[in-house]
Amino acid sequence: MAEPEKAGQSMTSHPERSGAVVFVAGAAALGGFLFGYDTAVINGAVDAIETEFNLSSTVLGFVVSSALLGCAAGAWYAGPLADRWGRLRVMVVAASLFAISAVGSALAVGPVSLTFWRLVGGFAIGAASVIAPAYIAEIAPADIRGRLGSLQQLAIVCGIFASLLVDYVIADVSGGASGEAPWGGTAWRWMFASALLPALVYGVLALQIPESPRYLVKIKDLDGARRVLKRFVGGDVEVRLSEIVKSLAGGDQVVNLKSLRGPVLGLLPIVWVGILLSAFQQFVGINVIFYYSTTLWQAVGFTESDAMLTSVITSIVNIVTTLVAIALIDRIGRKPLLLIGAAGMVLSLGTMAWAFSTATGSGKDLVLGPLAGNAALVAANVYVFAFGMSWGPVVWVLLGEMFNNKIRATALAVAAAAQWVANWLITVTFPPLSNVSLVLAYGLYTVFALLALVFVFRAVTETRGRELEDM
């Protein structure tokens, strides 16, 4: 029997295997790129859509957040579908829906049709948000699982950056999001259409990678699972295979919501931990920065072009901080990063609440003084840094690895659905809430960040270095 590899050898002693596992993890994480791209692409189009369709702030909030309702549905169904069809087939379906949504949104004739096509795209986003972390966790060696799992968040923030950059360029050459693009058509419509290319790339790559070894064991394809484990995981393949078989024993029946029943308010405690981690990730208000930042910075004195450029810079900060998380997550662990990030968000969100408390005017006539304006801009980027090096990537890593093999896809689906519902609640309430008071909005997010810190300290268990079969 082969001697098991020592921790840390996967990336250094087996570069061929390392390259292969990084490729397949990256291909799966491309769903995260589309996740980030599709959810943030509307940022640069918000004001143009409001003007062209003559929308109230409440209706605008619903149109902007409509994709998130589709996300919740997509996440809810993706887990059971992945257990029936396999991880790869769900990826291909998601890629197809991404492409359809991009074209439909670009051709929308009113708020109703735009909402429908955004719902279609949302379903794809929700599915991708479940499949990518589950697949990566199931195919990655334990000693680098955190770093590979963080590729999901890296792809998300790269997608956000790419969409904001594309929005900025299209608006710049068109004289604004409402202007005519040099090649014809309104600029904001091309912003949506631009998502078609990455959707096609995602679909092609999904057809090039192997199925999850845990799913292959589930459908009794032990030879296929053995080949995947040997190529991507290494170590004593037979021992690992037997551990997976043992962990799935008695799991031939269809896994559904009944499998998650437990003694705490009808669910297993670990499922509640996943749900609350997901909810807190959104209740701290991160997506307000990415969905409404262009409008927000215009409201405090930036031109449309400068506001879009500021949003692009903020997304670059998010990418850099995700790289920090990738470097640290397998060294210091998941829980310490969550605690550090929550503390940073409490301080930065509190600063933003203070800055807006000094503002004069209201709505689009809001004005910040030089000191408060600079403080708000710095605090916003510190906030993005704190989130990006902790709650952004770490929550996805934990959701991919904290559940046992039998319930992983379904439990992750429930947690991800809760995340999208929380995301929708935050996004749809921000326009009317900000009309009342930005101090109130950022004050609420500060309170949620504080509650998140307490929750992690009391309820989250470290998973660094543990095999999935030990969860």
How many domains in all? 1
Sheet/helix structural class:
mainly alpha
* Global Rg: 22 Å
Would you count the extended β strands for me?
A: 1
Unreliable stretches covering 5 or more consecutive residues: 1-13
**CATH homology group:** MFS general substrate transporter like domains
Characterization of this structure:
With 471 residues, the chain is mostly helical. It has a single domain, classed as Up-down Bundle (Growth Hormone, Chain: A), CATH 1.20.1250.20. The protein has 21 helices and one strand. The chain has helices spanning 9-12, 15-40, 46-53, 57-85, 87-106, 111-139, 145-149, 151-174, 187-193, 196-206, 213-218, 222-232, 237-247, 269-283, 286-299, 304-332, 334-357, 370-388, 391-401, 408-436, 438-459; one strand at residues 261-264. Helix 2 packs parallel to helix 5 (87-106) and helix 8 (151-174) packs antiparallel against helix 16. The two termini are 25 Å apart. The model is unreliable at 1-13 (pLDDT under 50).
Helices and strands, with pairings:
Elements: H1 9-12, H2 15-40, H3 46-53, H4 57-85, H5 87-106, H6 111-139, H7 145-149, H8 151-174, H9 187-193, H10 196-206, H11 213-218, H12 222-232, H13 237-247, E1 261-264, H14 269-283, H15 286-299, H16 304-332, H17 334-357, H18 370-388, H19 391-401, H20 408-436, H21 438-459
